[in-house]
Amino acid sequence: MNNVLPSPFVIAEAGKCIGCKACELACFAVHNDHNGVVAAVGTVTVPVIPRLHVVRTESFTLPVQCRQCENAPCAEACPVQAIRREEGTMVIHEESCIGCKGCAMACPFGAISLNKAFSNGKVVPQIQLKERQHNAMVRSAKVIAYKCDLCRTRDHKDGAMGNVPACVEVCPVGALSLVHPDTSVSRSRTAAAMRL
Amino acid sequence: MNRFVIADPDKCIGCHTCEVACVVAHAGNNMFLQDESGADFYPRLTVVETDEVTAPVQCRHCEDAPCANVCPNGSITSKDNSIFINQDSCIGCKTCMLVCPYGAITMVPAHKGGQKQLQSGLRSNTAGAWRSKERIVANKCDLCEDSGKGPECVRVCPTNALQFIVPSQIEDSISRKRLASAQSLLQFGGFSRL
Amino acid sequence: MSYKDPIIHIDEQLCTGCRRCAAVCPVGAIIGEPGHPQTIDAHRCVVCGQCVQICTAYAADNESTTASRAVKLQERGQLPNVREPLFAAYSSGDIQKVKAVLADPKRFKVVQCAPAIRVSLAEEFGLPFGTLTPGKMAAALRRLKFDRIYDTNFAADVTIMEEGSELIGRVMSGERLPMFTSCCPAWVKYAETAAPELLEHLSSCKSPMQMAGALFKTYGAQLDGIAPSDIFSVAVMPCTCKKFECSREEMSVDGYREVDLVITTRELASLIKDQGIDFIHLPDEPFDSPLGKYSGAGSIFGATGGVMEAAIRTGYELITHEQIPNLQLDFVRGEEGIRTAEVQIGELELKVAVVAGLKYVDAVLAKVAEGTCPYHFIEVMACPEGCVSGGGQPKLLLETQRKMAYQARKSALYRHDSHQKVRKSHENPDIIKLYKDFLGEPLGHTSHHLLHTKFVDRSFKEEMS
């Protein structure tokens, strides 16, 4: 048997979330080594671009993020194969992304957002593409798709406690979980059998 | 973010009306002044028909347009939330055509005032005779910017298979999907115990 | 000058009502329904800034409903070129005023930094937790055009001389015991608000920052031959409440404000960045003499238990006239909570307690009110691990790093202490000189005039104008 295990993913639990946005901030913090973002807020020189999004309404608040779909519509929509499955995670290769917005439109969760790319605390310019600004042709900012990658490239020197994504780790009320579908379903199944 | 036109393959019936409308819209009045035998039909979107799908494909006006990023002389630029080819300065290197992942760029003879444009210097030997070579330029969807009326293909499609997308629509759609996906989870829980 | 700005604010446009701030507020000053913007009861608020540290409700760039970033930066007293994200809970900044003063060649600008700044400032420039940078800090301040780089640590040594002498006096007479420390302005404001009947138990000493300020415009002015009116005194503090303390009406000397302005560690970092100073590559430079030279005891004031340890080092020797056998007093070092110890000093068994975190002080105050509190001397710091964890310190992006950060900052303070040649306040040669040339003796007439104060009952609700 050579079955591919279903991808783990992060999911939020309604009723627990208090809307503090610590998950968004942590997500941003651990994905921005290349922008010089370290421990202190003072090291941040780029806009906070999170890869999960706290939805807030009058009656509830809950973060939404990528479900690491097995038949990922985002990857299907990508014309340049910039979205690939790596070690069980759907990863956007930002350097290949051409900002076509296809993935963002294809995702039914709204888990993908397009935003400017930053490196070394500065906007990444286009290679050649220019636009007119104040009577001069200037290289515009590269725009890329952002989504949850389960912190797969996270540098665990930052005091991470285990192999869980930063959002799960910092949530003060335990509203976020990293679920491994195969083990969790087998647990539910065993529990169901016990009840028979 | 850029605007663009996109098709719904479930609605498209493969009638090619969009292609005709595109040609008419870009030819202006001069279309009918062309010599019939040499009349050019170069739509900026192409209806693809296969066993599985029928749909027009056109430029997505990518934020990081690969075509623009490989253009050697800055003939493809970003303008009013769209990607625009300046055919007057295009040198016909074909690289943009090659790198476009949508196949949305074609190389076509340049026209001005209904007439094919010829090179001023470059000559080519055709059937033993030296003639000025015609100019060949990159051609793609420009959202019918010059008409001021929006994309003609969208207007003419009999099944409304084509949609003109503006940036706020994408943002609104992402927000709506986020809200819906959060709402869908409201009655479920206990994930942390799994 | 009077207390107008409540200093700690919650931006109602950004607050999501998660109430994590309410959970860390030691005095229950944060009011509101979950899910709705919170407000601060300025009367109860002790301005410790712990809410500022915990808040994660940042302003997303694309939120069209909120006022523009430029407007908010202006409202918050921050420089327009600040690039870090803005959060719902914040403290009012004074950096624009400091910048204006620094550009004025007619003012004689004197600066002091609290002990906890040199162990955390580097974090703002991306260096690891616990990087110790007193030399770079002094170099940066000199490049910011301060005329004298003095230090709060020097005044911490003065505090030990005064407070230690006061304690010895009270223990000998048995009057007004236990004696509480008075260097933490948030604790002082709390005592004034919640337990005004116990104010006589507070040491009459001003905080090291105010003592330093008083000395700059008297002793310092004499040494430099400058008129006190020309001196502008700036303090860099890990603490948001120091902004309140410096504006207290009684904190003046001969009609001059002791400290004209307080900026936080974060504001100093922001100023250094604004001036394009390459902090990481600055050389180590010394502080200016004599008001910038300090002992190891002065430097540990920034950690919980530090004042106690410094006081015991000096108290032991003043009482017994013998050398203290061990300088490292581990029994007063530690984390959030209450620690107690009995210290044998000659004949005297000194009972001490260290309170780290204002929420733990109520139990102690209740005992004092009952007359059953067994201690002689109690150190109280409002913030969980002392000034290293103050509300004006570098704010962390990840809550999971907080323990590690505080631990590293404290270790750096103790490392700094252990590397000093002089580790006891009373052995600091410049302190000896200060008393010989200027103050006379601890608790003497000049000391009383410059370095001691009275506390006020704030239990009534002040009208905020």
TrEMBL record, chain A:
4Fe-4S ferredoxin-type domain mapped to chain residues: 88-117
Record InterPro entries: 4Fe4S_Fe-S-bd, 4Fe4S_Fe_S_CS, RnfB_subfamily
Alphabetized PROSITE patterns for the sequence: 4FE4S_FER_1, 4FE4S_FER_2
Keywords for this protein: 4Fe-4S, Electron transport, Iron, Iron-sulfur, Metal-binding, Transport
Coiled coil: none
Record keyword Nucleus present: no
GO MF annotations, alphabetized: 4 iron, 4 sulfur cluster binding; metal ion binding
Pfam family, one: Fer4_11
Protein name: 4Fe-4S dicluster domain-containing protein
Native organism: Paenibacillus faecis
Lineage of the species this protein comes from: Bacteria, Bacillati, Bacillota, Bacilli, Bacillales
TrEMBL record, chain B:
Regions crossing the membrane: none
UniProt-listed InterPro entries: 4Fe4S_Fe-S-bd, 4Fe4S_Fe_S_CS, RnfB_subfamily
PROSITE patterns in alphabetical order: 4FE4S_FER_1 (PS00198), 4FE4S_FER_2 (PS51379)
Gene3D superfamilies reported in the protein's UniProt record: 3.30.70.20
Domain annotation 4Fe-4S ferredoxin-type: ranges: 2-22, 81-110, 134-167
Protein keywords: 4Fe-4S, Iron, Iron-sulfur, Metal-binding, Repeat
GO function term, MF aspect, one: metal ion binding
Superkingdom per UniProt: Bacteria
Signal peptide: none
Name listed for the protein in its UniProt record: 4Fe-4S dicluster domain-containing protein
TrEMBL record, chain C:
Domain 4Fe-4S ferredoxin-type, chain residue ranges per copy: 6-35, 36-65
SUPFAM superfamilies: 4Fe-4S ferredoxins, Fe-only hydrogenase
Superkingdom field: Bacteria
InterPro entries for this protein: 4Fe4S_Fe-S-bd, 4Fe4S_Fe_S_CS, Cytosolic_Fe-S_CAF, Fe_hydrogenase, Fe_hydrogenase_lsu_C, Fe_hydrogenase_ssu, Fe_hydrogenase_ssu_sf, Fe_hydrogenase_subset
Keywords, sorted A to Z: Iron, Iron-sulfur, Metal-binding
GO function terms (MF aspect): ferredoxin hydrogenase activity; iron ion binding; iron-sulfur cluster binding
Pfam family, one: Fer4_10
UniProt cross-references to Gene3D superfamilies, sorted A to Z: 3.30.70.20, 3.40.50.1780, Fe-only Hydrogenase (Larger Subunit), Chain L, domain 3, Iron hydrogenase, small subunit
Keyword Metal-binding: yes
The name this protein goes by in its record: 4Fe-4S dicluster domain-containing protein
Organism of this sequence: Paenibacillus faecis
Classification of source organism: Bacteria, Bacillati, Bacillota, Bacilli, Bacillales
